[in-house]
Amino acid sequence: MASFILRRIGVMILTALCLTFIVFYLTNLYPNLEKLAKTQGNQRMSDEAVTSFLNKNGYLQPLPVKYVQWLGLLPGHVHEDDETGDVTAKCARKGEDPSEAATYCGLLQGEWGFSTVFKDDVGTIVSKRLWLTGKLMLWVMILMIPSALIIGILSGMREGSRLDRSLSTFSIASSATPEYVSGVIFITLLASSAGWKIFKGTATSAADNATFENFFLPVLTISLYGVGYIARMTRASMAEVMTAQYIRTARLKGVSFQKIVLRHALRNALIAPFTVIMLQFPFLLNGVVITETLFNYKGFGWTLVQAAGNNDIELLLACSVAAVIVVLVTQLISDIGYVFLNPRIRIA
What we know:
By secondary structure, the protein is mainly α. It has helices at residues 2-27, 30-40, 47-56, 63-71, 122-157, 162-175, 179-191, 203-206, 212-242, 245-252, 257-269, 271-295, 300-309, 313-341, and strands spanning 78-80, 87-89. It has 14 helices and two strands, in the order ααααββαααααααααα.
């Protein structure tokens, strides 16, 4: 197990490097850098002024050099003006003398950069927004997982029954409805003056003080899509287990149906749904982006949209690193949990 985890961590690091390099390449294309220069200066900057700005801040260096500097494995860029003699150091903090700045300043040193939109340290922004999204995702999981498992188990226990058909129809409908559709429907019916207006709070205020009125609609919107998907997988797994030979043997021995489900079928039926549940975290990141933007809940997804829309390169890179880490860690937990749930699986 230890060697397996070490190998997987090595693969995760390599995958993270490849993915972040792709994002780094796309965000450092010249049109994006030109837009950044004009945003920091003015929109009427000449081509010479744009080139001077980019050269001064190290954006015109070779891409591999910039990427390794961003990781913190190479010294930060230092530029000295030939005419004025002014020195500009990437690692210099605001108001700090460039000559006293640190030599290395990258991810490995905990330096995520400075946001050009929020005018704050990127690490502080990402950690704060991730906490807000983590709070949202916690309640999504609390609502989504039990609901999906109950629906899937009830449906799979009586395959082909009226209850199965009804629950399967609900699961298909919920998983076929994207978040931006269900969110708009919920807002129209439950939170606007055109509907019942049951939920009078705004999701923006939920960041500071989450209540049922201002927090339930975003949670419900994200949960609804995942409920249908997990319920369908649970139903398929449960229906397959209920037709297994050992289940038939237990029935012939006179074991009650309740004991068969709870003691024999349930654990084996939850192996596949467990993997699906863990893999929901990466998929839920997409739902978070849509839902947080729709409800103006200023979490990680909302921040990612703001960074992309305003060409905030440093913040966009930090968000991509956080998203990659979430995806890779959940996949590792999924693989390890699958082994514990199914003792027949052995790692070579």
